[in-house]
User: What shape does this take?
Amino acid sequence: MDELSTQDVIITAALPYAYDDLHLGHVASTHLPPDILYRYLKLKGTKVIQVCASDDFGTPILIAAEKQGKNPSEYVAGWNVRFKEDLGRLGIVYDLFDRTSSPENVELVQRFFTKLNENGYIFVSEINQFYCEYDLKFLPDRYVKGKCPYCGTEEQYSDVCENCGRTLQPGQILNPHCSI
Ligand SMILES: [Zn+2]
Ligand SMILES: [Zn+2]
Assistant: This one.
């Protein structure tokens, strides 16, 4: 640990998705451990900042916002405020608790993407994916349910069976249906 005291330190933690409440598991596994390190380094006199954010992107967020009749950006903004309040009540205060949809972050991510693309690390590929004709959208694995081809358990996610523990390949699930 000693070498840390001679450097500036940035601490971060896994970003919570902006569509559901934080629970004690998030605190115990994700937000409390870095906060302990943060306080320790501060006491030692190290220059340290602690940053985190709510993750505003992803299909589950779109679906949750739709269900509540809100537009996605106002929906995620509400969760960002709530996360900060909840963590703050536990004494966990980030120097910056941003949002992945902030203009700064969008610009940064696009800079990485452009660089990777320019250097040939991103390529076009064909994949098979389920499409719901009712919701008019392609569905991630987690939004398709069906019957496990190994043990026959109904209502399993299309990527894993929670009964027999087997991982399923795309298209393996029997009687696939949209879970929305
Ligand atoms: Zn559907
Ligand atoms: Zn199974």
In short: The two ends are 48 Å apart (CA to CA). The mean pLDDT is 91. The chain has two domains: 2-118, 131-178. Residues 148, 150-151, 153, 161, 163-164, 166 surround zinc ion (ligand 2) (CB under 6 Å).
